Amino acid sequence: MPQRKPQRKPSRSKSPGSGPSRIILGTRKGTIILERGRTGWKAGKLAHGGVAVSYAARDERTGTWWAALEHGHWGPKLSRSADGEKWEDAPQIKYPEGTCYIDGYLNDDGSAAGVEAAMASAKPLRPKLVKASLKKIWYLGFGASDQPGRICAGTMPGGVFVSNDNGDTFELNMPLWNHSSRGGDLSQGECLGAKTFWFGGGAGVNGEHTPGVHSIFFDPRNSRRWFVALSCAGVLETSDDGKTWQGRNKGLLATFLPKPDVEWGHDPHYVMLSKNAPDHVWMQNHCGIFYSADGAQSWKMVSKEGRTAHFGFPVAADENDGKTAWVVPGIADDKRMAVGGALCVAHTQDGGKTWEELRKGLPQENAFDVVYRHALDIKGDALAFGSTTGNVYFSANRGKDWISLGYNFPPVYSVRFA
Amino acid sequence: MARVAFARHLYRFFPALEGREIRVKAATVAQAVAELERQFPGLAFYLVDEQGKLRQHVNIFIEEELVVDREGLSDSIQPEARLYVMQALSGG
After folding, report:
1. Yes or no, beta carbons of B45 and A97 under 8 Å apart
2. I need a labelling partner for A264 at 20 to 30 A (CA). Which of A181, A182, A354, A361 fits?
3. How far apart are the first and last CA of chain B?
């Protein structure tokens, strides 16, 4: 039988040290803002009660709070709030008429073609084109300081919607949507011969799987240069503010494919660069942890299968020291549980050569927590994460000590300091 | 004009729907949805996706009949018909 959890003080705990005073959670049952007062952290009133919130964050530039909702019946919606209390539907993100993507291939009679048969045929591939409709808003990236109105939304099916007016209007980035790696421009005709290298991906609330954009990050030195990461495709970079895109997957390994060092088909789970050392980029990938010291131009695997730090979803890069990062390990495909029934955060200070396991304050038995890709955040020396079993933990001292902010939250999808 | 009744769940997001008889002048379900959007901005995107397709877990009935054309909503509506916008019971 599972033992009692180590503390029983949900949503109120003493917090050592200083640091951020607010955290916003996106959960299976709504949006929750935690605030730190004199007596510790306290959970505020639930917003969007009963609605799955795939991502929630506050735009520091404007003070606007954002939540990406996944209604079970009524579809994905973007919600915003000026004060974190009163929320309203924002102008909604919609794929333009005529946008479609490849979802398999067809025989001449319209029946579904097996991939092998389709590839072996001497005839050009006949793609099955599906009209795009919004399945999920997976991530919101807020632009650089010289782009005050810039908000980018990563979506399923894999797209990036860009706003330059603080979210009043969003426009699908067509060069990425029409990228050659997913078959090019599919808006005209049957597109015979078009082939996509994007596949798999996360699930929408209704269980549909399509490739999706879950990471968007900007080069703080040059806001025209930014990156996106998709499951499953890989990382792409633009250096001309979204007009053209180049793959940045050199050194990545997709060990679930016959040829792991492919150009496309990688499964980055989350990618983050060091804010003040932006050539240092970290990736928690399905196949391990990867690190780049040259601005994502090349990657190196810095974890080993069988070690604690290897599989997982989130990664947090130190703001100043590019060689320092944190991950929350889990057991891969067959289980998706905490490693050894014990929750830990793994930490490197040498670019992934060595990993230290940080466990103080975290349950070390009967723990089943998995931490999703957006459910770990960092701000200064503070770290916070939330798990699928509704536990939220906070550290004021770079992960050395952890305190619980509550054990009975809904499954947590995102954790962001606000 | 056709009369439209809604699942109570929608009152939470569109309080103006509650306690009123909603009427639309429409010859098809698609036209009815467009008219509802005109009267209640934002409502259509709760019922259909951006391609105009009825959402997977939403049902619209004309009298007691479930609409047949979920893609284009071309089902015709008699002038005094009753429409029901319901949550689909897709689970157990």
Report:
1. no
2. A354
3. 35
